[in-house]
Design goal:
The protein is mostly helical. It is built from 16 helices and no strands.
């Protein structure tokens, strides 16, 4: 446990850095609830919400079939979830509110199902979800609402050429969020679920898009798609450029000159990986996440990056249209190249340390 003197020193450092203002608040004892109790409370909240909703639907089943009534009831349930999240902060209330909100979302989608082929409807859905992300104070709800908002934007642009550039545009948002984490850290409760949701959407979207037009057409459930598929390779070029840009930004953060030996080696290695990702699509996204996660000490983001890396690499190896012997040669060559790059970076680092 920290002593009062160390707490005062920490507060003074934060005050001098402009992160906090005013006098240090009094220490408050926080009661820690065991995880298994919170899990039990969460399941209890889900069951309570399910039985309440079943009771309401059994009474008004004939009215809910009307689209106008379903839409109004859906909005009321989302409003009720907002009230629950604002008033209570327990695991029971969180799961209870989630079930109310998800049911409200389902009712609203049912009410709008006749107009879901219209892009303007998906734009409205995206705006509503964005408002829910901003105002409803719950991590999981913000995560799913942000996920739904970005997905709605993708569906709204399904007939536009920009569709095939959506993975790179989403990754640009991912880069902006994680590279500037220090700026929104004081408002982490709002921005962290947004950052994670956009990251998941970027990985999922690129995984689908990289399989080609047929896979996207199947995922779109037969909707008409933009025919400008020549933008798909440009999307990969943009992702490779973002990898190099990420390296440049991280070098600047750690005050490593881009024209130094270490900086040039890092940029050169990033350019090589960017060129490789043009053939083995997806590796640029994986390396961006690995670099961002490692630089921020974020194990979740780092784990996502490694998972994406091995998934993309395994898929490329599986779909590679050569013999198994040639595939082995490719793996050996790739491994030797990576080891040589590691040795070169290590040698340059030792030289810089020696000169310093």
């Amino acid at each position: 446990m920290n002593s009062p003197q160390s707490d005062n020193q920490l507060w003074q450092k934060l005050y001098d850095a402009g992160i906090v203002t005013g006098e240090m608040p009094n220490a408050v004892d926080i009661e820690v609830i065991p995880w298994y109790v919170r899990v039990l409370q969460g399941f209890t909240g889900q069951f309570a919400a399910v039985f309440l909703l079943l009771f309401v639907f059994s009474l008004f089943k004939d009215f809910i079939k009307q689209e106008e009534v379903a839409f109004v009831l859906g909005l009321l349930l989302i409003g009720a979830a907002y009230a629950v999240f604002r008033q209570l902060s327990t695991a029971f209330a969180g799961q209870f509110g989630l079930m109310l909100s998800f049911t409200g979302h389902a009712l609203c989608l049912f009410a709008l199902h006749r107009s879901l082929n219209d892009a303007s409807t998906w734009l409205v859905i995206a705006m509503i979800e964005a408002l829910l992300v901003w105002f409803i104070p719950h991590f999981l709800h913000r995560f799913f609402s942000c996920y739904a908002a970005v997905s709605a934007l993708v569906i709204a642009s399904i007939k536009l050429p920009i569709l095939w550039l959506m993975p790179s545009m989403t990754m640009l948002v991912v880069m902006a969020l994680w590279l500037h984490e220090a700026q929104w850290l004081t408002n982490s409760a709002r921005f962290r679920p947004i950052a994670y949701a956009v990251t998941f959407v970027a990985i999922q979207m690129h995984s689908t898009f990289s399989l080609g037009y047929a896979a996207v057409f199947q995922a779109a459930e037969g909707r008409e798609l933009s025919a400008q598929t020549w933008l798909i390779p440009i999307n990969e070029v943009l992702l490779g450029a973002m990898l190099v840009l990420t390296i440049v930004k991280l070098l600047a953060r750690y005050q490593v000159a881009a024209v130094s030996k270490q900086g040039l080696a890092a940029i050169f290695a990033g350019a090589i990986l960017a060129l490789i990702s043009l053939k083995a699509t997806g590796l640029a996204i994986a390396w961006i996440l690995i670099l961002l996660g490692f630089s921020a000490g974020n194990r979740v983001l780092l784990g996502l990056g490694f998972f994406a890396f091995w998934s993309y690499l395994g898929r490329y190896y599986y779909f590679l249209n050569i013999s198994l012997l040639d595939k082995s040669y490719v793996l050996i060559g790739t491994g030797v190249l990576m080891l040589l790059m590691r040795q070169a970076l290590k040698h340059l680092r030792m030289e810089d340390t020696h000169h310093a």
